[in-house]
């Protein structure tokens, strides 16, 4: 697994929120976002898409889990009323580039926590990100970005 530590900047985002069990509905939210972004000419080769699970399904009832499908937008971009917007605070992250399959995601989770324990970091209290940049969007690749801070 390809693991690196990266400082991710603050992002201004437009997003679609899905509330309910994580799974297929997350994909529908991302497709809605991509359709909107394509219509706004934002879905370019340099686009950055993010999937942001806001809740831990081990401590939050499935029907209350929130997932945001996001696209990074320029600071001066005017978002119309059909889309939510916000700021996502950056920071230090462990980033793992993987094939976007259930098997690879599970494998990543089983490897990332031992990596953190041996590298002198702990998880920071920010959302974990699924990041898709450029060619990743159409090639079933993503980066799992876990917020960290020194022990």
CATH topology: Multidrug-efflux Transporter 1 Regulator Bmrr, Chain A
Order of helical and strand elements = EEHEEEEHEEE
Distance between the termini: 23 Å
- Helical stretch count? 2
What is the count of β-strands? 9
Derived structural class: alpha+beta
User: Helix content range of the residues, please?
Assistant: 10-25%
What is the CATH H-level superfamily? Answer: Regulatory factor, effector binding domain
Runs in which pLDDT lies below 50 for 5 or more consecutive residues are none
**Portion in beta strands:** 35-45%
CATH top-level class: Alpha Beta
How would you describe this protein?
With 151 residues, the chain is of the alpha+beta class. The protein has a single domain, classed as Multidrug-efflux Transporter 1 Regulator Bmrr, Chain A, CATH 3.20.80.10. Helices cover 23% and strands 40% of the residues. It has two helices and nine strands. It has helices at residues 24-39, 102-119; strands at 2-8, 11-19, 48-53, 66-72, 84-88, 91-99, 121-123, 129-133, 141-150. Strands 1, 2, 3, 4, 5, 6, 7, 8 and 9 form a nine-stranded antiparallel β-sheet that branches. The protein is globular, with a radius of gyration of 15 Å. The two termini are 23 Å apart.
